[in-house]
Specification:
alpha/beta, eight-stranded parallel sheet, four-stranded antiparallel sheet, 29% helix, 20% strand, globular
Length: 300
């Protein structure tokens, strides 16, 4: 049985990876999960300088998921290169670094710094607010998506994944803009904007007022967006949003994703990623698929 997939020339032993921001940089989960069994580890977002993140409280549970407004707290690229990359290099898995920034220059600085590092792919979190444009996320304007993709590609030595925001009217417009800008791969979806109010305190549950909604409740939206995108672009897609088990992952593959990311499920079940790998294999055995490629985009 062959579970290998190819993303822009990078071969993964299986289509399963972690979703950025839910797995740190792998170290805190390594006592629960054998990282060697994963297709790739996607790190938490890394910026040019350390970011403190948002004020607390910044996480709240909801029906079928959670809200988070962590604010991309991270130690900055210098600490990341010295501490996290050497740790991940101990394992037989691909390393995908998620990059965030407040301006196009911020992204390019991190991408340039990583060009000499032993990492396999770069994922651009374009749901960050663009400071120069008054705080609208890069990923909510197709012209901005194409422009930042083009700029980042000038500095990147590794294939570039553009992570798309679902908080738009037409996801295919953003996907086509990223493809036009030279993106090698797309990943979607990022979190949906949500809000929770504590009725007993009569106050917002999260200090930021709004947060990113993730978890099982967003899966049908994510599957729909992956399907639409797969039928609108020619580049591979990493599907994510509410994947908790192998069956969820297979749904994304059938919709047209080449690989999948597991995020929120890691908080509830630290071994979720390993179980998803096995779940895909079990499904392939049950329905006699020899190659995972046969599943990708099978449902038209």
């Amino acid at each position: 049985m062959n579970t290998k997939v190819n993303l822009a020339g990078v071969e993964l032993k299986n289509p399963v990876m972690t979703a950025s921001g839910t797995f740190g940089s792998g170290e805190e989960y390594s006592e629960f999960v054998d990282l060697n069994k994963l297709g790739a580890v996607v790190t938490k977002g890394v910026a040019a300088v350390p970011w403190p993140g948002n004020p607390t409280p910044r996480i709240a549970e909801t029906y079928g998921g959670m809200l988070n407004a962590i604010g991309l707290q991270n130690p900055g690229i210098d600490v990341f290169c010295e501490r996290d990359i050497p740790f991940l290099k101990k394992f037989d898995t691909k390393i995908i670094v998620n990059v965030c920034g407040k301006t196009t220059e911020d992204y390019c600085a991190v991408v340039e710094r990583l060009s000499e590092e032993p990492v396999d792919m770069l994922e651009m979190n374009i749901s960050c607010p663009n400071v120069k444009e008054g705080g609208i996320a890069f990923g909510q304007d197709p012209k901005a998506v194409e422009a930042i993709t083009k700029e980042v590609k000038k500095y990147a030595r590794q294939p570039v994944i553009m992570k798309l925001s679902p908080n738009v009217t037409d996801i295919t417009e953003m996907a086509k803009a990223a493809e036009a800008g030279g993106a090698d791969v797309l990943s979607l979806i990022n979190t949906l904007t949500g809000m929770k109010i504590d009725i007993h305190k009569r106050a917002f549950a999260i200090a930021n007022k709004t947060g990113g909604m993730s978890g099982p409740a967003v899966k049908p939206i994510a599957v729909r967006m992956v399907y639409q995108t797969a039928n609108a672009v020619k580049i591979p897609i990493i599907g994510m949003g509410g994947i908790s088990n192998g069956e969820d992952a297979v749904e994304f593959l059938l919709a047209g994703a080449t690989a999948v990311s597991v995020g929120t499920a890691n908080f509830q079940n630290p071994r979720a990623t390993e179980e998803v790998v096995k779940g895909i294999e079990d499904y392939m055995k049950q329905y006699q698929f020899e190659d995972v490629q046969e599943l990708i985009g099978l449902v038209k």
